Amino acid sequence: MTMVRRVLSLTSGRIAVVILTLIALLAVLGPLLAPQNPLATSDNTLAAASGSHWLGTDYLGRDTFSRLLDGSRVSVLGSLEVAVMALVVGAIPGILSVYLGRTFEWLTLRLADTLVALPFLLFAVAVIALLGNGITQAMLVTGALVSPLFYRVARAATLAVARSPYVEAALVAGASTGWIVRRHVWVKVLPPIAVALAQTIGVGFIIVSSLTFLGIGVQPPAPTWGGLLASDLGYLSYQPWAPLAPAVLIMITVWASNLLADAIRDVSGEAGRAFVNTRKARANRLGKPDPVSTGGA
Amino acid sequence: MTTLSAKAAPGTALCAAEPATEPATGSVGELSTAGTTAAPVLAVRGVRISDQVTDREIVHGVSFELTPGKTVGIVGESGSGKTLTCRATLGILPPHFEVSAGSIEIAGTDIATLTPQQWTALRGATISAVFQDPASYLNPSIRVGAQIAEVIRVKKGLKRREARHRAVELLQAVQLRDPELVYGQYTHELSGGMLQRVLIAVAIAADPQILIADEATTALDVTVQAEILDLLAELREQAGLALVVVSHDLAVVAQLCDEVLVMREGEVVEQGPTSDVLHRPRHEYTRLLIAEHDQYGLEKFLTPLTPQETS
Amino acid sequence: MTTTAEQAPPARRRRVVGTRVRHRLGRLLVTLARSVAIFVPVFLVATFVTFALRSMSGLSPARIQLGEEATPEAIARVEAQWGLDRPFLVQYWDWFTGVLHGQLGTSWTNGADISTLIGLGLGVSLSVATFALIIGVVLGFTLGTLAALKRTTWIDRAITGFVTLISVMPAFVVGIVLVAVFAVGLHLFPSAGYIPAEQGVGPWLAHITLPALALSFDVVADVARQLRGSLVAAFRENYVTGAVVRGLSPRRIFLGHVLRNGIGPALATLGLKFPALVGASVVTEWIFGLQGFGRFANDSAQAGDVPAVQGVLVVSIVLVVLFNLIVNLVLARVTPASQRGV
């Protein structure tokens, strides 16, 4: 797809994609790569990093590196679940709100207002604890809570398309709503949704880590990145460096997601295309790559 | 085509630097014909402006002089460099643009020598400007009166109370019907014509000697346009303002100006007293402008049945 | 400021001032009405969902009080005591009217009044949240302003980089790092606990500084980024050129014109940020051992104490609504342009 190629033409886009691919590989292969059983305890507790324990051991003598690798799957899958759930629950009503009449529009708008106003970590904690302690329920609830982002983005893009002359022309020509959505709306709605998706993966990651940090969503012995941090907290005076690895992994993942979101935003839409073109033109003229763009947000 | 060759060296600033600072409220210039007797408040000499990024010259030499109570008009289509010339005079060229040759003197001071502080002191008090789309040149979240009062307080050192009083007077002077009411309103509460009057009031608040009106009447209704032009003329008579009127509309220039510059693609193609240029145009482009204008005016009377075509 | 002095005839002056005051009052009322119009449905929907949680959860006070081996009769008796055998809507109505009167019911676990319990924790949480907001606003505004003033220089790039860094740090990561460095490593601050302000402002500040700092990072990042963006945009506006041409100094232009218009989106961000702040308090209070609102939420949720959780959610919604109301009022005051529906 052209958008993917354009994202990859940006340095920041390439960096983001490479990092996220690595993290995804970690999620798939991590548990297999773990050199030791992440659940096996030993007498060698709170050990420093060494040849046999690359990142040392925790308070039960479990190998931290193995736990980190093993825990990556839950963390990554969790954030993907959040993003996909939010996409489904948010984007579809967002697009439909333009077409299904005023009642539906009013209802979904109010619902989106409500969800946005909720302190969602608090809600996630409450709902998950009450509805049963499973990572999938947890992520689905979280996904629903962050879905207004998709609702708004999809709705705004659809509105812009729906009011454009060519859609009106199609309507006049007797095209069905379904056909218009597939043919015209989808194309315009996709880029902003891709941006939102990348952002939500980052947000989802923070939420998953926060929840697992609190011990919500997973059964205790199973390792997660958040859970690793939580167990490190009690032993900071013995191992002040222990939180470093999971913390850095979480931050890099979130950063890469944001970077990807920015890259997609930069290359999508008319402005984006012009942006890439001027960059190329300037690079050509100067005969050397462009300096880092100074854009903030 | 008078002074295209006058590519002044920086030193020439000294020659003209004598008594020009006095605004001469009674306007001595009223009697003089070509603006040669009084010292000019604004002297633009062979100004060239170029875009440093593309290294292209946009304005290829503009020269004119302006004495108190006089008006110079610059006519040309959009992109002819007239606005850039104005901006150069005000020292607000867009980034990457630069005066590459020539000099501009305001009240005897070469602007190339000005420090940022001196610029700040000069603007508003000596030279000021009004623009097209007046709403955007006023702060949308501050009452318009307060914006006038701000200029008076800062530039003339008046107290809050006096500044407010003076601002209301100014609003009255630009013929706004209910100055007290307008004082407390925001830009979005005022019409285009009213906004342009407010903008003029702001511009003259610190009693400048030069006022640049860059397409100041372009977006307005024809009747409002005429009123604004009358107002400018009146201010010129009363306060001895020197005006630079920039427009793409020959009629505006004809109504107000003593001298006209016709610009096209950065080049001054014709320059001279208004009546000469209008009645005996030498350059083909000027003729074209005048012809178009005649036709335009005639059409209104000749074919009243098809008003659509004039739009 | 504008209503103080004038030389106009007194009668006329009174008229103008009168209309202006009425104007301002009217705007205030419109803002209030609009906020209420948005938040009444929010409140209704949110409380309904909150209340529906119980029936969805299948939890019951009987389990907590009687344990797993209770007979069905005993369970039914306890549930009848709590009024849980009545129709759902009747229960909701009872609960909702109670909420409107400030009564959030009694806890399933210890029968204590939930309003009182939450009230106890709220002091801690609000101290931390307020301090976090102050840090966030001060630091965020400083960084955003500095970056906008020095845009495209290395200062701008350094600030942008720093802001990007802290924006990807979740509150609990920041919290752990702060504990590791300042409490465990340098012994500058206590690592946990809380002392009310009445027992000494110094210790109080010492105890809330680290949690507030942990919470504030997100606010700092968002405010700084938003402010930089809107200030840079405001600098490109024509009214800045206008002010330059009028001979106003750069300082005055920035303070009086650019900041005034650029501040709106940053304030709006603050309104959006508040729910996240309340939410993140669950995590930070856990790290710093604060017996606050978030800790109470977490504990009651894990204990399956449904009325307590409902109470927590209601209070959090009220907090968010109140905060947004304040932000909206400030916004209306700062930028009348927003009243045009911009």
From TrEMBL, chain B:
Keywords: ATP-binding, Cell inner membrane, Cell membrane, Membrane, Nucleotide-binding, Translocase, Transport. Its main location: membrane. SUPFAM superfamilies: P-loop containing nucleoside triphosphate hydrolases. One of its GO terms (cellular component) is plasma membrane. PROSITE patterns: ABC_TRANSPORTER_1, ABC_TRANSPORTER_2. It holds the Pfam family ABC_tran. InterPro entries: AAA+_ATPase, ABC_Ni/Peptide_Import, ABC_transporter-like_ATP-bd, ABC_transporter-like_CS, P-loop_NTPase. CDD domains: ABC_NikE_OppD_transporters (cd03257). Residues 44-290 form the ABC transporter domain. It is found in: Cell membrane. It is a peripheral membrane protein. GO terms for molecular function: ATP binding; ATP hydrolysis activity. Belongs to the ABC transporter superfamily. This is ABC transporter ATP-binding protein. It comes from Streptomyces dioscori.
TrEMBL record, chain C:
It comes from Streptomyces dioscori. Residues 122-331 form the ABC transmembrane type-1 domain. The keyword rRNA-binding does not apply. Belongs to the binding-protein-dependent transport system permease family. One of its GO terms (biological process) is transmembrane transport. InterPro entries: BPD_transp_1_N, MetI-like, MetI-like_sf. The keyword Transcription does not apply. GO terms for cellular component: plasma membrane. This is ABC transporter permease. It is found in: Cell membrane. CDD domains: TM_PBP2. Keywords: Cell membrane, Membrane, Transmembrane, Transmembrane helix, Transport. PROSITE patterns: ABC_TM1.
